[in-house]
Amino acid sequence: MVDLGDNPFDTTDAIFEWKQPLKKDTFSPETIFHRDEEISLYINALQDVVVGHDPNNIFVFGPTGVGKTAVTKWVRDKLQEKAAEEGVPLHVIGPINCRNYRSAYSLVTSLVNEFREPDNKLPESGYSTDNVFEFLHEEIEAVGGNVLIILDEIDNIPPDARNDFLYDLPRAEANENTPIETAKIGLIGISNDLKFVDVLEPKVKSTLGEREIKFGPYNANELRDILGYYADMAFRDGVLQDEVVPLAAAFSAQERGDVRQGLRILEKAGEYARMSDGNVVTEEHVRQATETIETDELLDYFEDDLSSQQALTYLATTLAIIEPGHEATTKRVYNLYSSIAESSNRPVKSERKLYEFLDQLSMQGLVRSAEQNLGIKGGRKFIYDVTDDPRDILNAALKSSYKNAVPSNAKRVLKSHLEDEASEFQPPDTSDPQQRNLWKFT
Ligand SMILES: Nc1ncnc2c1ncn2[C@@H]1O[C@H](COP(=O)(O)OP(=O)(O)OP(=O)(O)O)[C@@H](O)[C@H]1O
Fold first, then answer.
1. Residues 232, 340: one domain?
2. ipTM given for this complex
3. Which of 289, 213, 266, 257 is nearest to 365 (CA)?
4. Which structural domain range is residue 397 located in?
């Protein structure tokens, strides 16, 4: 019982010493672990700047949370330090996150403003896109020397900036129509969409990909070192049980090899420990944290990343998997998809469209498929699976705006799926009222 006369806030924290290092990207590490090879490729690509050659364009890619931005910033700072020591003219802009810009105009305007004084900033509208490009060229020529522009999440670059920016800008010096004569421009693009380069025009591809640096996921041992470094700063001495960091590292390695996720697990585990009024973070807290984080991540997919049709397809695939007695074939997924779309008053698309949605989900790593040959009968069929635990997916769906699409007995079906009590129940063909009984689509 809470005594309402008391103030429940605590002014002390028995668990955390300094939370900042665990917080999302607001902390720059002093040490970068396990990226020696990538750093040396980076240094090699930028070495030209220090000795007076033209800068290279560099494309940095790899999955999320594997140190692309952290390494880029570290290398950038070292390059600036060296250039200053050697008196080499160098002006670096960024990393600028392309996700924040909707058009070439807004992206270029913000770059121009990076060069300009506060009292001389460009307004958000009022010029043509060609005009703002001209301003950018003028600013670049005015600072002269080497100008490096670092664009993060370059896969989100506004489509109308793709060619002008990624191809024309690095060549502006050679183009007689620009005022750039002495400045040398180098572009560094960072992306976690591995397919991004494939969709670029070949000439843009070869410009940006002059040098490519690939970052792979971390393994459990590497994550253990990295998470250990952050945990030492973030937690009070002696509060972490020995297994906490290795377990958080093992979980994140199993998932995506992503540091950010490991840091979130540690932070959440610490919070569970704090809520339990103890002064030790245990393995159990890490397990609890992992479960919550997985549901939260899936919830983000439902709310932010997936279109409503993709979300329904994802949910239908999950239902098809937990459904007793048969496989998650395209037909089954389609039946369930149409039923939940209909029962939640959303448009029902064709089976051909469903293939597209499944394909998109598989590109995002949420769904995978296995092809089965039907032997002498001929033909083949696809069996679908989800990459996350169906329990977490259903929990996330129930917390999301798609909760009205989750059949009311889904949890019960899930329970029997988990208990492996496959029943003989036939697949519900939605036109058959008897079969509709398996799922309660309301
Ligand atoms: N090798 C490492 N050593 C120390 N800290 C690291 C290392 N790799 C990643 N980090 C830390 O992990 C977090 C995520 O890394 P970072 O932002 O660089 O990932 P990213 O690959 O750029 O991800 P995204 O593509 O999502 O932007 C940051 O706090 C970063 O400082």
1. no
2. 0.99
3. 257
4. 306-437
